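Proteins fold reproducibly. Consider a sample protein:
=====
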Amino acid sequence: MPTIPWTTSTAPPPNATAHVMASRFEVRSLTDVPRFLIRSFAAWRQVTTAPGAYGASLVARPFRRTFYTLSAWRDRDALYAYARAEPHRTIMRELRSTARDSAFAHWETTTDALPVRWDEAWRRLAEEATPGGR
């Protein structure tokens, strides 16, 4: 399972609030996996320099056609500014036709609790996720 471990984008201030988002994307077929994976790395590079990003991780399960992201942000506005910025905006538009399913979970934590653990992200995606939306 290819994983990009938690990478800190910007050192967060101590004991501040952080907005966390976990996502799950499932593509329609195995033939969609290489394209999705390549485009995911482009979005990954963007998040490492995005204003307000504290850190992120990516897990790819290509043979299950599933990709997970986990990121922490200064606030929800910083996350949404990243999502609307290039290249993320175009990437998501291009990959929409390959998506079979997606889910998102959002929650608040303190910066002292970063990095967020994947077991917490998977639990929240299973229990609290909103399908395909915010």
Summary: Strands lie at 3-8, 17-27, 53-61, 66-73, 99-110, 130-131. The chain is about 30% helix and 35% strand. The mean pLDDT is 93.
